[in-house]
């Protein structure tokens, strides 16, 4: 870089690229290209090289084998480095001067963010499982509610930030680089909790602040089982550049590894995109519909689906003029086409409502999908429709318009739309959360005035779902949604005015052109070399309730036992063994929101011959009425000798959370 920092990359390219320059594709993330992500990277980047591209995989400054320090997500420094990297790539003798950028999650975020900076060589991007809005639609906050994902993801990134570079790459200075990383390390959950409202911190990197800044072509891809699918319809709605949107049934994974299935030939689809925008070939990809999604069939609720039945459907424009808005009225216990006399219904949910919610963001692992919602429905105020006389398909975001009041200044509202089968099983279709102090926006929330009536709008997550005849719709409202969201400081009672509150569904009529959609090819990938998986990362999830204390504990164990940093993989080509273990626990009492507690324990190991390092990270979050309490410690070892240690005991004001 221009400041002297050295950035590490792996590059795959056609053997003839020095004589016949080719376009380049950049993936730019902090997830350690040399070891942890090697088996994921090689099948993708080698595939692009075999298709006539130079594929460049870069460790962000302060991660992997790159120099410098990783201070946060999506920093100004990260963006400035990206501009230098793209300019460097474009001027290499093996590059034609045309560059694309691609990534999933972090790499999908910064592909959008860098595109908004308009580097001249960047002609097109593919952004997967990302967002245009870092505050309202990311792992930290949802509807102004603090997500427990903030604690999980932030703790994992804290551990990642403490990993050393590889001595085989950086030489003897690896210890100095490692110590510098540890000394500069921040507990990321606390950093993000320090910004509970939508301020300039979150506006930075949120391309929704100025969609017009993006001028290169954008292919936005997501999955219904992921936490980031809402951004796809927003991007194709608001971008003025050439664009496409695709949402499958998948979790937070590449579509060629798609779980739930069916997976698709994503890499072939990507090459069609790159060939069009980087090589100027006619592939037909821009002649196809703007927005294509997997219309999910109704299924029995289960915590894991290998395949999610359904079919591909498409819309030529979005928002689509074909979508019909169907309004249903919330009457006592019922969803009706006409309102009944206005009545007030009050509810206050057990703090354990939400235990059947699954993970906020799925990764395709067993046990992470929402299970049968009946236990959570029982802790909610529920409204049921009549059994459907004919099938109903929805595509888009259901919207609630509610008249309500609360008896406390801070309250949470969770809304779930469910598909109830004739046997009574309840399948979650979509959900939404709102911190009611954010009822008028996220920049300047205001306490509720107890007893005062408010008109509140709550938009649920976008979804495509087909509900069969004979099934019924259920809307379930609750004042808690644990462990997805942190509870307010006291258990509020919410009063809802029925007859004056509505649910609006985006109903999609049939489209004959769906039957003629071009089929995706089966998945392809290049081989990954020299990587041997020694054991699968088994994720076990349990829920235990102590009937004496009335405390419920949700536990996730990764690796199938107590933590020992068990070896997961051996990378034979660099003679390296990798290990990782995770324990996550959420505790809460049924009636006491201040009993909420989340803790994570992680261990990771890297070993090659006599070189061995181990990092142990423990983090814990609790709360009082006024503040959050974060405790954490990180211990690092070279061999069995302690190397460096960090400890944090921090207090964060609640600020209407």
Can you characterise this structure?
With 657 residues, the protein is of the alpha+beta class. It has three domains: 9-134 and 204-315, Rossmann fold, CATH 3.40.50.1820; 145-203 and 529-657, no CATH class; 324-508, Sandwich (Jelly Rolls), CATH 2.60.120. Helix content is 16%, strand content 36%. The chain has eleven helices and 33 strands. The strands form five sheets. Strands 1, 2, 3, 4, 5, 8, 9, 10, 11, 16 and 21 form an eleven-stranded mixed sheet that branches. Strands 25, 26, 27, 28, 29, 30, 31, 32 and 33 form a nine-stranded antiparallel sheet that branches. Strands 12, 13, 14, 17, 20, 23 and 24 form a seven-stranded antiparallel sheet that branches. Strand 12 (324-331) and strand 13 (334-336) form a beta hairpin. The protein is globular and about 75 Å long. The chain starts with 8 loop residues before the first strand and ends with a strand. The model is unreliable at 560-565 (pLDDT under 50).
Output mean pLDDT.
Answer: 96
CATH superfamily of the largest domain: Alpha/Beta hydrolase fold, catalytic domain
Helix share bin: 10-25%
The fold-level CATH name of the largest domain is Rossmann fold
Strand content: 35-45%
The CATH top-level class label of the largest domain: Alpha Beta
Rounded to the nearest angstrom, the radius of gyration is: 25 Å
What's the short story on this structure?
The chain is 16% helix and 36% strand. With 657 residues, the protein is α+β, with helices and mostly antiparallel strands.
């Amino acid at each position: 870089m221009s400041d002297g920092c050295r950035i590490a990359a792996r590059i795959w390219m056609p053997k003839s690229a020095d004589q016949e320059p080719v376009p380049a594709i950049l993936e730019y993330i902090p997830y350690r290209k040399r070891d942890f992500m090697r088996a994921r990277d090689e099948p993708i980047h080698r595939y692009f090289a075999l298709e006539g591209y130079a594929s460049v995989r870069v460790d962000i400054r302060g991660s992997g084998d790159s120099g410098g320090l990783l201070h946060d997500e999506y920093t100004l420094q990260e963006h400035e480095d990206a501009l230098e990297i793209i300019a460097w790539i474009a001027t290499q003798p093996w590059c034609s001067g045309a560059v694309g950028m691609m990534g999933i999650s972090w790499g999908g975020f910064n592909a959008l963010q860098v595109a908004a900076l308009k580097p001249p060589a960047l002609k097109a991007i593919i952004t997967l499982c990302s967002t245009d809005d870092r505050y309202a639609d990311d792992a930290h906050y949802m509807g102004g509610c603090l997500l427990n994902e903030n604690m999980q993801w932030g703790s994992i990134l804290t551990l990642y930030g403490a990993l050393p570079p590889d001595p085989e790459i950086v030489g003897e200075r690896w210890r100095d680089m490692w110590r510098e990383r540890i000394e500069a390390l921040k507990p990321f959950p606390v950093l993000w909790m320090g910004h509970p409202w939508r301020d300039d911190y979150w506006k930075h990197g949120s391309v929704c602040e100025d969609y017009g800044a993006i001028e290169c072509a954008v292919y936005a891809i997501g999955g219904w089982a992921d936490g980031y699918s809402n951004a796809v319809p927003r991007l194709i709605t608001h971008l003025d550049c050439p664009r496409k949107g695709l949402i499958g049934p998948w979790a937070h994974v590449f579509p060629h590894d798609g779980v739930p299935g069916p997976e698709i030939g994503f890499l072939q689809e990507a090459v069609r995109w790159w060939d069009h925008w980087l090589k100027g070939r006619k592939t037909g990809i821009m002649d196809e519909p703007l927005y294509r999604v997997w219309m999910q069939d109704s299924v029995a609720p289960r915590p894991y689906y290998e395949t999610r039945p359904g079919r591909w459907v498409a819309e030529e424009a979005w928002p689509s003029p074909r979508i019909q808005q169907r309004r249903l009225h919330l009457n006592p216990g019922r969803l009706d086409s006409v309102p009944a006399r206005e009545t007030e219904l009050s509810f206050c949910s057990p703090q354990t409502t939400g235990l059947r919610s699954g993970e906020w963001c799925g990764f395709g692992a067993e046990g992470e999908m929402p299970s049968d919602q009946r236990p959570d429905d029982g802790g909610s105020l529920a409204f049921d429709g009549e059994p459907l006389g004919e099938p109903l398909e929805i595509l888009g975001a259901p919207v609630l318009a509610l008249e309500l009041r609360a008896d406390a200044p801070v309250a949470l509202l969770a809304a779930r739309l469910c598909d109830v089968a004739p046997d009574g099983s309840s399948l979650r279709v979509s959900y939404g959360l709102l911190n009611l102090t954010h009822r008028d926006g996220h920049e300047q929330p205001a306490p509720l005035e107890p007893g005062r009536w408010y008109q509140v709008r709550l938009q649920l997550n976008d979804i495509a779902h087909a509900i069969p005849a004979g099934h019924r719709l259920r809307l379930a409202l609750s004042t808690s949604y644990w462990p997805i969201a942190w509870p307010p400081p006291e258990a509020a009672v919410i009063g809802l005015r029925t007859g004056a509150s509505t649910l609006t569904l985006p109903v999609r009529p049939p489209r004959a052109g769906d039957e003629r959609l071009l089929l995706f090819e089966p998945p392809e990938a290049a081989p990954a070399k020299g990587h041997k998986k020694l054991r699968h990362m088994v994720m076990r999830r349990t829920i235990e309730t102590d009937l004496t204390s009335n405390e419920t504990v949700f536990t996730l164990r990764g690796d199938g036992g107590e933590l020992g940093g068990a070896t997961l993989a051996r990378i034979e080509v660099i003679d390296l063994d990798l290990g990782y273990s995770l324990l996550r626990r959420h505790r809460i009492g049924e009636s006491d929101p201040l009993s909420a507690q989340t803790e994570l324990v992680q261990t990771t190991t890297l070993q090659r011959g006599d070189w061995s390092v181990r990092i142990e990270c423990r983090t814990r979050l609790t709360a009082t009425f006024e503040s959050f309490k974060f405790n954490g410690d990180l211990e690092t070892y070279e061999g069995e000798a302690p190397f460096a240690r960090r400890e944090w005991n921090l207090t964060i004001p609640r600020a209407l959370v």
